[in-house]
Write a structure and sequence with these properties.
Elements: E1 18-22, E2 27-28, H1 39-52, E3 58-63, E4 66-71, H2 73-81, E5 87-91, H3 110-126, H4 133-150, H5 163-186, H6 190-202, H7 205-211, H8 220-227, H9 231-241, H10 251-258, H11 266-280, H12 283-292, H13 294-303
Parallel strand pairs: 2-4, 3-5
Antiparallel strand pairs: 1-5, 3-4
Helix pairs in contact: 1-2, 3-4, 4-5, 4-6, 5-6, 6-8, 7-9, 9-10
Length: 309
């Protein structure tokens, strides 16, 4: 027999939004969600929820006789796997989905309300720790687009000098305003927000699609290196990294092969890594490394006649 969802009865949230217990089947999942369902994570979440119950309600909006999901896809799927008859939902009221412009009295238009719901979904995703680097970049990039539609005043720049200056100034103003908003909303630093957006914008549409679900999608440093390349080079690099039997372990290795040179050996990669790291140390740090290898350094100096000059 299907189990009821264990919970403590709280009819309203601190914000005053209504809470309710509804059948999981009454919640429709829109096709336009930012993140696809991860079955493995849903299964893990189901195991946790079977032990501790549902600690956080999913977010929904009313749609006719049912509801549309805003945030909480994996919790919803977990409840279905557990065959719960009901799941706790937080019903977002229409007035919670308005923009700053609407607080003066006018109601939100349908596109504005849709953007506000999308913003809510993205922020909910970004607040969770199971996002990989690619998903975080995608979320922040879309959050920027949504934010600029909701707050078009952030895109306004000056009207001085040339059109090029105006366009550049307008873009910088928009990015500056958004990054501060996103940093406050997500807890990420301003620099982290800017870097994530730059990575996503630098990746070609084909690269974004091919990277989903791969180990490379979890490494921001690799995504950054790939995003700095032209789209045709990105494609060649991914051909090597994502081959059934990978021919390169990193973007750097793939670029060596693309350039027609043999890939670096394990020792060559280690030497390059150590050499780069050593050069980044200050003088006292390098001295500590040299002291640790003093005997080997002195032996090499004697054999190669460093002291003969």
């Amino acid at each position: 027999m299907a189990a009821s969802r264990p919970h403590t009865d709280h009819p309203r949230t601190e914000e005053g939004w209504a809470l309710a217990d509804v059948a999981p089947g009454a919640v429709r999942v829109p096709d336009t969600r930012l993140r696809a369902l991860d079955p493995d994570w849903a299964a893990a979440l189901a195991a946790m929820m079977s032990e501790s119950g549902q600690n956080t309600p999913i977010d929904v909006v009313r749609a006719g006789a049912g509801f549309v999901l805003v945030a909480g896809l994996h919790r919803l799927e977990a409840a279905k796997r557990l065959k719960w008859r009901t799941i706790r939902v937080q019903i977002l009221p229409p007035e919670a989905m308005t923009t700053g412009a609407e607080t003066a009295g006018s109601e939100a238009t349908a596109p504005e309300a849709g953007d506000a719901l999308r913003q809510h979904e993205i922020l909910d995703n970004l607040a969770r720790k199971d996002l990989n680097a690619l998903e975080r970049c995608a979320g922040l990039a879309e959050l920027k687009q949504v934010h600029e539609r909701l707050y078009p005043q952030t895109r306004k720049g000056g009207d001085r000098k040339s059109q090029t200056f105006q366009d550049t100034n307008r873009n910088q103003t928009a990015i500056f305003a958004f990054c501060h908003h996103a940093a406050d909303a997500t807890g990420l630093s301003d620099r982290a927000v800017r870097l994530a957006i730059a990575i996503w914008q630098g990746l070609s549409a084909d690269s974004r699609k091919r990277l989903k679900g791969t180990p490379t999608a979890e490494k921001q440093s690799e995504l950054k290196a790939l995003s700095d390349l032209a789209p045709d080079i990105q494609s060649k690099v991914l051909d090597l990294i994502l081959a059934p039997v990978p021919k390169a372990a990193s973007v750097a290795d793939a670029l060596v092969i693309v350039a027609g040179r043999p890939p670096l050996s394990v020792n060559e990669r280690l030497f390059k890594s150590v050499s780069n790291s050593l050069s980044k140390l200050n003088s006292s740090g390098r001295a500590a490394v040299f002291r640790q290898h003093r005997a080997e350094i002195l032996d090499l100096a004697r054999r190669e006649g460093w002291f003969d000059a």
